[in-house]
Predict the 3D structure of the following.
Amino acid sequence: MYTSDKDSIVKSYESAKKTYAAFGVDTDAALKAFREIPVSLHNWQGDDIKGFEDLGDVQSQNVVTGNYPGAARNGEELRADIEKAFSLSPCKHRVNLHSVYAEPQKPTPRNEVAPEDFRKWIDWAKQNDLGLDFNASFFAHPMMVEGFSLSSRRKDVRDYWIKAGKGAREIAAAIGKELGVSSWNDIWIPDGLKDIPANRLLYREYLKDSLDRIFEDKYPHEHLIDVMEGKLFGIGVESFTVGSHEFYLAYAAKNGVGVCMDTGHYHPTESVVDKLSAASLFVDDILLHISRGVRWDSDHVLIQSDELTGLMQELKRGNLFGKVAIGLDYFDATINRVAAWVIGLRAAGKALLTALLEPTSLLEKAEASGDFTSRLALSEEFKNLPQSAVWDYLCVEKGVPVSTEWLDEVKKYETDVLDLR
Ligand code: RNT
Ligand code: ZN
């Protein structure tokens, strides 16, 4: 198996640095920027979004397939698995949590969990210098009546979930305050109908009213950033999704809230790459859920692709870092779950670094002068600049595996830890 040779990596980096300098790119500056841009890892890949509640057999509105052994069964295991994944990625990390991962002293209803029920996550985040993001889990619960939450026809159902939504914001704000870095709280609900509704407007009015109540409580932006995640359709709700993109974008622009764009949530010929510049002119906070849909919102593990690179380039070209936060969202239970995290983190990291190294000003210059031939020709050549030499150097500097050695470590972790579960 491959093992990296530090000296040759440093030499290759020095040579890559010269190549990039010839195109006007400062590789050291790109590396510095990389180290400061966080990627938020979704904790739910570690246990197939099961969480720690004991609700018996409830239907989930998230479709996770596979039964690879070794899923985390509690907070200790999940945190250990995430630490393992982080040790194999050179990114700056945050962690994205769901309310089903509360660890209360005694069993507590989903909509009554409080900041202290996340004490172990918060202390762990502090020790590991991680920011934390949050979500109320509007799924897999007896109060999801016929798959509806905030837009249910039943007032008691809406009230139950409004309380969960308010609680999640309180938790996220407390986390952001304690960690000293804002926590992004995302609202995604699966509410919708399999067949053609008789009254679309009614559900959307209910959702609007529920959101109005959830957002009544005010928190400082340096503690809490609110976003809402729309979706085109889901399995079982093919005809109608209450929380559509238009709904949330309009709500966001009017009420000063942010949106979350999940790359799996649009029609397959649409791309989030093109949506960021549009939305960012009217919405201050945008969270990305980077996912890989295969034919539908299948949440496959993130891999390197034109779409992923395009997303990161869009952030760089528009200088959208800070306004647009990077988060991952996928789940695959057919492969080693820690490996799934590492594959996605490294793919995101490589795409981010490639974007930061892009000689953007040359492309922009060609475009501004109407020389579209050069714009296309240059962008093709730039795909083959020595970004992997910079990546290798970054990994050496961060003390994480440069290449396939990371897989050996995951295999060892599987034998030593996961297989014993
Ligand atoms: C579902 C949304 C949502 C979830 C998580 C678990 O389609 O993408 O973000 O994946 O909340
Ligand atoms: Zn998502």
Q: What stands out?
A: Residues 109 and 131 are 26 Å apart (CA to CA). The longest helix spans residues 155-179. The pocket of zinc ion (ligand 2) is lined by residues 188, 229, 262, 289, 329 (CB under 6 Å).
